[in-house]
Amino acid sequence: MAYMSQEGYDKLIAELKRLESVERPKASAAIAEAREKGDLSENSEYDAAKEAQAHLEDKINQLKLTISEAKVVDTSRLSTDSVQILSKVEMTNMTNKAKMTYTIVSESEANLREGKISIKTPIAQGLLNHKVGDEVEVKIPRGSIKLRIDKITVG
Prior knowledge:
- This protein is α/β, with parallel strands linked by helices and 155 residues long.
- Helices cover 40% and strands 26% of the residues.
- It contains 3 helices and 7 strands; from the N terminus they run E-H-H-E-E-E-E-H-E-E.
- The chain has helices at residues 6-35, 44-69, 122-127; strands at residues 2-4, 70-72, 87-93, 99-105, 116-118, 135-140, 143-154.
- It has a 5-stranded mixed sheet with strand order 5-4-3-7-6. A two-stranded parallel sheet has the order 1-2.
- Helix 1 (6-35) packs antiparallel against helix 2.
- The longest helix has 30 residues, at 6-35.
- It is elongated, with a radius of gyration of 22 Å.
- The model has no long low-confidence stretch (mean pLDDT 92).
């Protein structure tokens, strides 16, 4: 089960609709066009179109699975006592005093440019269940960092 925001769930639904209503017909048209070019045994365009369609169908099926396992979290019922999914955490890196803010989201909603990190990342895992004022040591690929949780809000 993947916990996510309503916004994240709505984006998944929109992406599924786009893939099914726009991309799937494009893939079928590409196959039909390639098929018209004759001998299928030596038609690399046809093979490429079939492969692209197979990748598209895999993507659609994966999206359907993610949607079926999704559990939308009612953000109005979330607590800011400790870090959990959909928490927006303001923290300070104790080594260089850099301020960071991340919202912890499901894997499918993660987007670093928007400051949304997957709950499966080392930083999110290190912060989970900690409270404001806690200093946590987080193991990251390059060693470890010490973070102080300054503020928790609902993202």
